[in-house]
Structures are given as C-alpha cells and as structure tokens.
Design brief:
single chain, 238 residues, alpha/beta, Spore Coat Polysaccharide Biosynthesis Protein SpsA, Chain A, nine-stranded mixed beta sheet, 8 helices
C-alpha cells in the first residue's frame, strides 16, 4: 500500500517559527516533522510515498535528496495551484495512482502514532475510512479541529463549525478511487476541501470511521503553540 502526503500549503500561521519555509521541515527531535511522519508509516510497513508539494516545494525536494529519501520510495508531485483548497493536491495524487489501488492519505503537518496508522490500514475493507478521535476534551486546539458527527461508525456530517459532533477528524484517511470521483464532483461545484469530497460520499455510498486506538496520539501542527506542544509530547507519537 502507498501513502499520499500533502505538503503544498504555505502555513502562514507558523511563519514566525519557520521563516516562511514549509512547516513540515521544522525540527522534531533529531529529525524533521516530515521525517517523523515517514518513519511512523515505515513502522507499519508503508514505505512507498507520493508527496504533493507546492509552496517552496524546492526546499522539501532538497531535504529529501539530502537524506536519500530517508530510505523510502518517494515520488514528488507538484501542485502549482497550492493556494487553492487542499482537495486539489489530493486529486492530483489520486489521478496519478492506479484506479484499483487504495491509499492512505496524511497531511504533512499531522503527527500520528504508528498504532493509529495501522488501524486505518487494517480497517474494514471495501470502504473509504477516516481516523477519528472520541477524546474531544483532550484536543489541544478544539476551535481549529474538524468535527465529525457519526451515525454508527459512518460519517453523517463533517466540518469545523459543526455544533453537534461526537468525534474529531485526525487527518488520516484510507481512500479509493470512489473518493476521487466524489472529490472531482465537489471541485466542479467550487468546493475544494477534502471534507467536501467526504460530504459527497456521505449522502451516497457512505464514509466509514476508525477510532483512534487506546494510547495512540495525533496532533495537527498549525501554530507556534501547537508546534511547541508537539515537541513536548514527541515520545507519544512514536
């Protein structure tokens, strides 16, 4: 199985920390955030990656060259429209991959425990899946988190502004080409986020969820505060 990593955005909320470089290159212990993400995937047997770059993608490419891709198989895809919704980067990667090939998708700023990645990889077959966290009270930045309301183990609604929800989106998906079709439909209507593609499937074939395993952790690094929080809890993501 392959993994898609989206690393195209400019991450302006972290510019004071990054010096306007891609935040996935920030130090994370003795390596970068990107290296930590790749390493966690490798722990669960996923070593083949498509990384979508955009803003300052040259720096990400150089980082990978300097470290021999950290021993992984890596293909870089450039998204020249990186300023648009994050679904555009995902579409570029899904169109590049074989139609029958399910993939795991992760954002380049989400650090997630290997146990959680394995749970997504091994989730119920034949459906698209999202890793979700029921521990809402423990969320570091709840206002910025994407909320999910479920019916059983299926997504009923998703969005940052939901008032009624029972779990949080951890930013890791298992996707097949049905999601590509759904996302294409959403983009054609001017809705360019990953969540927009999810909503397209919610009303049709449905979209499943996988609960974050006990003891596993995840964090979306969007601000200086969340970056320092991630550093303070770095061991929990290994």
């Amino acid at each position: 199985m392959k993994a898609i990593i989206t690393a195209a955005g400019q991450s302006s909320r972290l510019w004071e920390t990054t010096g306007r470089e891609p935040k996935t290159l920030l130090p994370f212990g003795d390596r970068s955030i990107l290296a930590a993400i790749l390493g966690n995937f490798a722990q669960v047997g996923i070593r083949d990656f498509v990384i979508v770059t955009g803003y300052r993608g040259d720096l990400i490419a150089q980082h990978l060259r300097d470290h021999a891709n950290f021993g992984m198989a890596v293909q870089l895809l450039e998204n020249p429209e990186w300023h648009r919704g994050n679904g555009i980067s995902v579409l570029r990667a899904l169109r590049h991959l074989a139609p029958e090939e399910p993939v795991v998708l992760s954002m380049a700023d989400h650090v997630v425990s290997p146990a959680a990645l394995a749970a997504v990889r091994d989730g119920p077959p034949g459906t698209n899946l999202l890793l979700v966290d029921p521990r809402i009270a423990e969320c570091f930045d709840l206002p910025d988190a994407t909320k999910v309301r479920r019916e059983g183990d299926r997504i009923a609604d998703i969005g940052k502004d939901l008032r009624a929800y029972d779990v949080l989106d951890c930013g890791v998906f298992r996707l097949d080409q049905r999601f590509r079709v759904a996302l294409e439909q959403a983009v054609a209507q001017g809705r360019e986020g990953i969540s927009d593609g999810v909503r397209e499937l919610v009303g049709g074939e449905g979209f499943g969820t996988v609960l974050l395993p006990p003891g596993a952790a995840w964090l979306d690094i969007d601000t200086p505060e969340s970056y320092h929080h991630a550093l303070s809890r770095r061991a929990t993501f290994a």
